[in-house]
Write a structure and sequence with these properties.
The protein is α/β, with parallel strands linked by helices. It has 14 helices and 21 strands. The strands form 5 sheets. It has an 8-stranded mixed beta sheet, sandwiched between helices. Strands 1-7-4-5-6-3-2 form a 7-stranded antiparallel beta sheet, with no helix packed on it. Strand 20 and strand 21 form a beta hairpin. Helix 7 packs across helix 8 and helix 11 packs across helix 12. It is elongated, with a radius of gyration of 25 Å. About 50% of the residues are buried.
């Protein structure tokens, strides 16, 4: 008998990649936590993936390297993996399994919770209605993040998505209410992990951050566990502790690749691009854990960051993520090549819940009108730029040339900001007005006359926008 009060099994049929197959088991269920003791006395842990006719397939959290099937003793806990939850996580830096890597003691909590959790019952969901301000003008102004929303960032290898994720995690606030960030890094290089720790050091020291770092050389199973640990911690901080919690998960493509590797080791029939057929439901089981619950304080907001292989937005990971989430922030190679940070493609980006969390009584009276006019002008500017490529700028009308000036002013004086710059919403919207006023008043038809009068909009535009030509 073990300390868990359960029988130990020694009939390990085989070790296959990160999996162990145990024979002769009884009374074992799916998702049970497993303890594996080696001949040396070293202990490893795992989770039951499958049970069939006395065989149990266990995914080993620390990998199976160095394990001898003949010398293993396996004990089943009779319950899923549970972790302590509570405010003790705040200010801590842990690996993807929740074990401290900050030279501190183990994390203690008020109670324990199963890491797999469950999606929020739709009947109990409360509609999102308040913003989470990130301090990034392109996000706050045009694709406002709302408490309880899931808003992914779609990027490409080589673009500064990790810098943007770290900046948002460092700067985000919820209007002065109790706020925390849980940052889950998956498959990070060691330099990237060090960058995240440095970028979020101030927020961590303030006791507002939980940092989970899974590096590329950590076990693949840990990568599958990381977002589940992050969400379990966030749920307790939000729905029991009354905090508004932002969960940033970077990079979900690394997570999906880990899922594919385990699926291949299990011998499952692959679906699109060799990913398992349950990729959609697996991603949904993570993303749908965010939201607000009737009668409970706090909220969980999720921002998954993922890289699109070869920039393909139809790749299974971004494609399925788009079906589950409420919009997307798309980063652009072309904008990055022009030296603009963050390189957001505003016309490809969308926050479907923006109207629920922005505007009168939430952000500012003119916010939604300014955002709509900005996007309409950008769409027209893109058409004009395509026309200029065909006929040359000399063939454009005076109004069309104003749109080219607007496009440049938008990138340089609205979009562009330093990666350590916290831009208030007032600064973001005033910057948007300065850029919009490079256009004649007749082109600002989506803005009420009262707002145009208040900002001095004129039919003939003269002067510069911080050095950018307006006419």
């Amino acid at each position: 008998m073990t300390a868990w009060g359960e029988v130990e099994y020694t009939a390990v049929r085989e070790l296959r990649g990160p999996l162990a197959v145990i024979e002769g088991v009884s009374g074992v269920g799916w998702d049970e936590f497993v303890r594996i003791t080696m001949e040396s006395g070293e202990r490893r842990h795992g989770l039951v993936l499958e049970v069939d006719r006395g065989l149990a397939v266990v995914q080993v959290l620390e990998e199976t390297t160095g394990m001898d099937p003949a010398g293993l003793r396996v004990a089943f806990a009779g319950a899923p993996l549970r972790i302590p939850v509570g405010p003790g996580w705040l200010g801590r830096v842990c690996n993807g399994r929740g074990e401290p890597i900050d030279d501190g003691p183990p994390v203690f909590g008020e109670t324990y919770a199963a890491v797999n959790g469950s999606p929020i019952n739709p009947v109990r969901r409360e509609p999102p209605s308040e913003p989470v301000l990130t301090g990034v003008g392109a996000v706050d102004g045009l694709t406002t993040l709302v408490r309880g929303q899931k808003l992914p960032v779609f990027s490409v290898a080589g673009l500064p998505h990790l810098e943007l994720a770290a900046q948002i995690a460092a700067q985000a606030t919820a209007g002065g209410e109790a706020f925390s960030v849980v940052f889950a890094g998956m498959g990070l290089t060691h330099p990237d992990a060090a960058f995240v720790r440095d970028a979020l050091e101030e927020r961590s020291a303030a006791g507002e951050l939980v940092l989970l770092l899974n590096t590329a050389d950590d076990p693949v199973i840990e990568r599958i566990l990381t977002p589940r640990v992050a969400l379990t911690v966030a749920e307790h901080l939000a729905f029991t502790g009354g905090r508004h919690v932002l969960v940033v998960m970077n990079d979900m493509t690394s997570y999906a690749e880990a899922l594919r590797e385990v699926s291949a080791a299990r011998g499952e029939i692959p679906a699109r691009r060799a990913y398992p057929g349950y990729l959609y439901s697996d991603l949904a089981s993570l993303y749908e854990r965010c939201g607000k619950i009737h009668g409970r304080p706090g909220s969980v907001t999720v921002m998954p960051v993922l890289t699109m292989p070869a920039g393909d937005i139809t790749h299974p990971v971004p494609d399925l993520t788009g079906y589950i989430t409420e919009g997307q922030i798309v980063l652009s190679r072309e904008t990055h090549a022009r030296g603009v940070y963050p390189p957001v493609d505003a016309l490809s980006s969308l926050s479907r819940l923006m109207r629920k969390g922005a505007g009168p009584g939430r952000t500012r009276l003119d916010h939604l009108d300014v955002a709509a006019q900005m996007l309409a002008a950008l769409a027209r500017a893109r058409q004009v730029r395509e026309l200029a490529d065909l006929v040359g700028q000399s063939g454009l009308s005076a109004t069309d040339r104003r749109y080219l000036d607007f496009d440049e002013a938008f990138l340089r004086h609205f979009m562009n900001q330093r990666s350590d710059e916290l831009r208030t919403l007032a600064e973001t919207l005033e910057g948007a007005w300065q850029v919009l006023l490079t256009l004649p008043r007749s082109q600002l038809s989506m803005l009420p006359a009262g707002l145009l009068d208040a900002h001095g909009a004129q039919e003939t535009v003269a002067g510069n926008v911080e050095g950018g030509t307006a006419g």
